[in-house]
Queue: 2 jobs
Job 1
Amino acid sequence: MMKMKLVYFVFFIFIVSITSLFTFSSPAAPDEPYLGFNIGTEASNFPSPEALVSFLQLQKISHVRLYDPDPGVLKALARSRIRVVVGIPNDQLLAIGTSNVTAVAWVKNNVLAYYPQTVITGISVGDEVLTTVPVWGPVLVPAMQFLYGALAAQNLSSIIKVSTPHAASLILDMFPPSQAFFNQSLNSVMLPLLGFLSRTGSPLMVNFYPYYVFMENRGVVPLETSLLRPLSSPSKEMVDPNTMLHYTNVLDAMIDAAYFAMKNLNFTDIKVLVTETGWPSKGDSSEPYATADNAVQYNSNLIKHVFDRTGTPLHPEVTPSVYLYELFNEDMRTMPLSEANWGFFYGNFTPVYLLHISGTDGFLASNTANQTYCVAMEGVDKKTLQTALDWACGPGQANCTGIQPGESCFQPNDIRSHASYAFDSYYQKEGKRDVSCNFNGVAMITTTDPSYGGCIFPGRLKGNATQPTVNSTANSGTHDQTSRLASYHFLLLLLIVAIGL
Ligand SMILES: *[C@@H]1O[C@H](CO)[C@@H](O)[C@H](O)[C@H]1NC(C)=O
Ligand SMILES: *[C@@H]1O[C@H](CO)[C@@H](O)[C@H](O)[C@H]1NC(C)=O
Ligand SMILES: *[C@@H]1O[C@H](CO)[C@@H](O)[C@H](O)[C@H]1NC(C)=O
Ligand SMILES: *[C@@H]1O[C@H](CO)[C@@H](O)[C@H](O)[C@H]1NC(C)=O
Ligand SMILES: *[C@@H]1O[C@H](CO)[C@@H](O)[C@H](O)[C@H]1NC(C)=O
Ligand SMILES: *[C@@H]1O[C@H](CO)[C@@H](O)[C@H](O)[C@H]1NC(C)=O
Ligand SMILES: *[C@@H]1O[C@H](CO)[C@@H](O)[C@H](O)[C@H]1NC(C)=O
Ligand SMILES: *[C@@H]1O[C@H](CO)[C@@H](O)[C@H](O)[C@H]1NC(C)=O
């Protein structure tokens, strides 16, 4: 009896381990919740498309939303496997919503020109149209239908979803969630819109900011629940008197409010997708809660919440996916000051603050340790890299011993790998000043430790001299897979032993 149990147990681990082996190669199974990033571009030092894509990959960011179909970025995303939602700016709605020819041309120029190399998975039609430019409400659904028709003609309508992000203010009386309803004066748009989403299996996109809820209801909504903090006592839970559902945070309540608002119009089969959420790290005197500490808390708690997959009180089985707002601080935005300070990173890839997350499988692996490294970008010109490498190891006086033949960082023997080591050595020696990680634009700062196998980068040695990793010949890109394979072999061994017993 014991023996059978052991076998079953081990077999179970074995299956789990096999599963994890496969999830590695397909990081985004269709129904798994994910975290993506909005990428606004009003940053004075916005990186080149190539640098941006390498950065996304380093940080294991698998989903992004672009506000407009930037050709450079869409092209650079090719073969990255990063999933992209492409936005249509509000000022193009009228043209698309009044002419299916224009819609077909838009799809051709902004989707088909890049797909499938660039994995476009959605089109977000306009942004908060019904609340910012309600006069265009009447063309919104026609625009979505025309775009859908253009995709359907290419057999892509089941792969590329068409929807439109709404402001949370469209939903009235959100608290308690069971009483929420869509602003009824917009029902003439919302009814056909929900019909479209339901028919096409597309999500309801909503931008949810507990930050604004908190600011607008100070003294009523506690900071604790706005920041998704674990509550200090169950008595702080918000209980919806109609459903008796217990809410521990504002975001879940907002998401459920969206479900109730849809239910109120008899739609129960549409998923909620949070297309924007975040917390600003800085504000002016009227925005005292826009602080780095609150931003760290909100975003860290949110990331953990999505990874925990606990769903919402109404739908514990469905954890909505979330696009964080936003990747970079958009310093060119003005008034109020918070507008320029929603980013997780500055345009040069340095983190604005450090998150407290762990167990998130490398997602933003970065921001858990206050250590930065300087590495060569991917996809940059080899000659420029070689020149920079020569300079770093020569006049720059970087310590390039580690990349000499026979030394631990010599393999893989290629320019990019050697340049990364030399750049990091120089950068650490120069006290990690931003200007020391440029090298004619082929270098970038990262918070992901580039060390691999027996090759320890100077930045790691500096931060922690006594931390060798496992010996292996894998480079940083395949490191995870190697360790998964190792555990798979280990479990296989266990299984054999168990059967032997
Ligand atoms: C565009 O609209 C015209 C007229 O309504 C229709 O005949 C045609 O099939 C439409 N084309 C597409 C691609 O939807
Ligand atoms: C769409 O699929 C149908 C049936 O599978 C096929 O006949 C047609 O050629 C496809 N169209 C395109 C544009 O791929
Ligand atoms: C509902 O929408 C109408 C039309 O856009 C707007 O004038 C009104 O202020 C909205 N109501 C609320 C309570 O937001
Ligand atoms: C929703 O369904 C109920 C019951 O069938 C019906 O009374 C109500 O009018 C419907 N509401 C809408 C907006 O269609
Ligand atoms: C990292 O540490 C340095 C020095 O200890 C400090 O100046 C810097 O602000 C920290 N960075 C972040 C993002 O906290
Ligand atoms: C250069 O790096 C090597 C390790 O790769 C180390 O042993 C050596 O002490 C370093 N030299 C200096 C001058 O720091
Ligand atoms: C070095 O790493 C060890 C083990 O991870 C850790 O306990 C220690 O605090 C680290 N030291 C520094 C200076 O980061
Ligand atoms: C790693 O390799 C070195 C030399 O190749 C060896 O001395 C060391 O014991 C190895 N460490 C581990 C943890 O296997």
Job 2
Amino acid sequence: MTMLQSRPWSPPPVVRPESEPPAPERTDIRPGSAQDLEAMTTFLSGLSAETLYKRFLTGLGQVMPPGLPRQLLVPGATGGSLLAVRGAAVIGHAMWAPVPTADDPSGASTVEIALVVADDHQGQGLGSRLVDALVDDVSGHGFAHVHAVVSAENHVVRRMITRRVSDARYGRDGALITVTADARSLAPRRSWPRGASTAR
Ligand SMILES: CC(C)(COP(=O)(O)OP(=O)(O)OC[C@H]1O[C@@H](n2cnc3c(N)ncnc32)[C@H](O)[C@@H]1OP(=O)(O)O)[C@@H](O)C(=O)NCCC(=O)NCCS
């Protein structure tokens, strides 16, 4: 006669797949340089006509102007650039460079800023991260004024400005708006003013 021995029950071993699925790649923001030329060229080539127009305020045509990627990465002797990178790919770019204006013809005290995010990555908070990093970068360089030129119908970027600048001065030139602010008034994103329109 065979005796069945009662043994304490233990759960079956958990079988794990050979390798876990990769975590989604994270997006880093870092300074751009001439080393990023190839990735920057690929990034610019992939932008839609609408995004290119909003960024450069003109049609760029079928062929990318030679030298544009380099100029955006290294904007002059005193300017700077930031890249949003995921893996080896550039998915966003921001830059600042001194610029002459009517109030400051020498361009010694005014810095122009601009940014662009890849179409597939827009509306996910990346532009906000880039602009906050840009504000940090610029504030260390002692410029008195910050200046941006945007399309009047670009409500996304106008909203971004309103939320970070308390003393913006606006000028209108046809379809374009120039926004100038005291560099010291730049701050991290503010809450949307109570009662203001949130139409985008
Ligand atoms: C402007 C731009 C850089 C913003 O980057 P983004 O990653 O899309 O922006 P975010 O997701 O960080 O959103 C920024 C704000 O706009 C709002 N927003 C973003 N996309 C929006 C959309 N399609 N409709 C309405 N609101 C939108 C966000 O809710 C956020 O508002 P909040 O600050 O109140 O939270 C990007 O849309 C872009 O590259 N546009 C084309 C180039 C351009 O216009 N450059 C600016 C001129 S230099």
